[in-house]
Specification:
single chain; alpha/beta; 16% strand; globular
């Protein structure tokens, strides 16, 4: 199947330059494309893979990592066909190994489970990984260009993961009417006659390939002066960069930019391009002037200006910021206790598989060592009987996800202390579940506990001693949503949101727009199938219609305390 030509893509110059620089020097470290749905992120990645294939004298595969992949499929596992048909114990290559020499593409990487994203990024940085699976151990070489895409509105990427990408490129839908008309025209032409369309761009594609090959030839000779190296180091210190990944990426990118421009010396314009590409996804102090928009994955949020702060008002009975809470005093909320008795009717066949071993189960990954043991006991080797597959069955524990808004407004009206006590007393009825506590306090999103027992959950509640900071509820609930998606246990989730719902607007944003943003993220939580409850203070005065309007039409149970 022919791919849309890279040379025919309109706009997105930073994204195209980032990929071209990776074709020149794959050691740069990967590109993360950030943008909403329908802005051609996937089209760009596939077009680049085809251009890379044409510019390489070695095979350059394009391997896509699906969201439903497993660790065995990613790293490799036992070859089931060889084992069953030939009784031969051998390994099967994983997706990472298959991408060697080409492109490993991950669409919506922010929705990929964190441990899988960690494995991919580790292998990308070291160019190899060690596979240990059911008695098979080997070191796998894997040199590839990593391309990830994500829609920040559908969940964030942990800063520790996003920092592993050298480039982060926000893709914005800011095309002019003429560009939009041209994009639609080209797409329709390609869909109608793909072969003729590719042939029409053959000359442009050849020029692109020749430019990449020429840049590769002169790259080793490209130099950067000590003055400019010192300027990079000084700017990294000013930006308070963690580690040296960003600075390494800046220097490598600048050298590629110079080579692409057929120059043997790095100039200031090359460094400007490099910094823009390398800062597009990092949360860095004093770097706002180099970015077109703030990073979507930051867990610490800058203070709002006076205009936006004025729209984030606490109730009239509010006291000074930093309201101190008393010691935890668990109590029971009858209606909330009844809600915990309610059973979820949602079935999710994509839940992760872990826990006990069962024979011939229809779900779960194969437990190979247990499969061999059970089959040998059943006479499989001697009598060539059917192999007895053993699988790891899903864990049946329920996950309790609690978001506690400990911002200034919830502490002023005594709500936070009462909510914390009711939560500690009522949630104890679900002691057998796994508990997760996300806290918004002092303008930061903090995980107090994850996959904890009830005792660990109660300790997390007890550590909260004061309420302070702005109400960045939308950003916090996005972090909660991303973490729930990463667990892939959607059928057995309960979500409790403890907040007054007074989200701090962005700079220049109207309160109605802040409500719309908040409603969108709550809707995404509900659509995942989790039983969701919102615990809020009894509304007063002008706030009586705020929360009912926010939750109107959503499957969210509301409690007042």
């Amino acid at each position: 199947m022919t791919q849309f030509p890279f040379a025919a893509i309109v706009g997105m110059e930073d994204a195209k330059n980032s990929l071209i620089y990776h074709a020149i020097d794959p050691r740069i470290g990967g590109t993360l494309l950030l943008g909403h749905r329908g802005c051609a992120k996937s089209t760009l990645a596939r077009a680049f893979a085809e251009a890379l294939r044409l510019a390489s004298d070695q095979p350059a595969p394009f391997v896509e990592v699906p969201l439903g992949t497993t660790e065995d499929r990613l790293l490799g596992s036992v070859d089931a066909q060889s084992l069953v048909e030939k009784q031969l114990w051998s390994g099967r290559s994983g997706l990472i190994e298959e991408a060697h020499g080409g492109v490993l593409y991950i669409d919506e990487i922010n929705l990929l489970p964190d441990h899988l994203a960690d494995l991919i990024l580790d292998s990308a940085s070291s160019n190899q990984y060690r596979m240990e699976r059911d008695g098979i151990t080997r070191v796998v070489e894997c040199r590839y260009i990593l391309i990830g895409t994500m829609n920040p509105e559908e969940g964030d990427l942990r800063p520790q993961l996003s920092d592993r990408f050298a480039h982060g490129v926000p893709i914005q839908d800011d095309f002019s009417p003429e560009e939009r008309m041209e994009i639609v025209r080209l797409r329709i032409e390609y869909d109608d006659r793909p072969d003729a369309f590719v042939e029409a761009y053959r000359e442009s594609t050849s020029a692109l390939i020749n430019g990449i090959c020429a840049a590769r030839q002169i790259l080793p000779a490209v130099s950067i002066s000590d003055e400019r190296r010192m300027a990079v180091a000084a700017k990294g210190r000013v930006f308070q960069l963690e580690g040296l990944r960003a600075e390494l990426a800046v220097v490598r990118t600048a050298r590629c930019a110079a080579a692409w421009a057929k120059r043997l010396t790095v100039e200031e314009c090359d460094l400007d391009v490099a910094w823009r590409l390398c800062l597009g996804h990092r949360h860095i102090a004093k770097a706002e002037e180099h970015r077109s928009e703030p990073p979507s994955n930051a867990f610490r949020f800058p203070p709002l200006d006076n205009q936006s702060a004025a729209t984030s008002r606490a109730p009239l009975e509010s006291r000074a910021d930093g309201k101190e809470l008393f010691d935890l005093n668990p109590s029971t909320h009858i209606e909330l206790s009844n809600w915990f008795v309610k059973k979820s009717t949602i079935q999710n066949p994509l839940s992760p598989c872990c826990g006990r071993i069962s024979k011939d189960s229809a779900m779960g990954p194969i437990a190979w060592m247990e499969t061999i043991a059970a089959s040998v006991r059943g006479g499989w080797l001697e009598n060539r009987k059917r192999i007895r597959l053993c699988r790891r069955t899903p864990s049946h524990g329920e996950h309790i996800w609690c978001f506690l808004d400990a911002s200034r407004s919830t502490g002023m009206n005594q709500f936070l202390g009462r909510a914390r006590d009711f939560l500690a007393g009522t949630v104890s009825s679900a002691r057998s579940g796994k508990f997760h506590l996300l806290l918004l306090n002092k303008g930061e999103v903090q995980w107090q506990c994850r996959n904890a027992t009830f005792s660990g959950f109660a300790r997390g509640l007890g550590r909260l001693k004061e309420a302070a900071g702005k109400s960045f509820i939308v950003e916090a609930l996005r972090a909660l949503h991303r973490r729930i998606i990463a667990t892939r246990n959607l059928a057995k989730n309960r979500v409790l949101i403890l907040s007054d719902g007074l989200a701090s607007p962005c700079s220049g944003e109207q309160p109605s727009d802040a409500m719309l943003r908040l409603r969108r993220v709550v809707r995404r939580l509900v659509l995942n199938g989790a039983l969701t409850a919102w615990i809020a203070p009894a509304p007063k005065r002008g706030l009586k219609r705020w929360l009912p309007q926010l939750l109107k039409g959503l499957a969210v149970t509301r409690f007042e305390i």
